[in-house]
Amino acid sequence: MKTAGLVLTIIGIIGTAVFGVQAFNDSESFNLLGMDVAVSKANWTPLIVSALVVISGLVLYGFNKKN
Length: 67
Description:
Blueprint: H1 2-25, E1 27-32, E2 35-40, H2 45-66
Antiparallel strand pairs: 1-2
């Protein structure tokens, strides 16, 4: 379980970084009445799933440490 937790944590961190950068780059901005307005058209689902994988990996890794 400790190894599975570590692998899930690493994969989740990499996925969160990659999909996070991609999501932040998928935004457009335009000028409206002198103000810059940013509109995001990114798909946030992969980022949320990656974050959940990190959390589940940490739970598995931490659960094994207590025993």
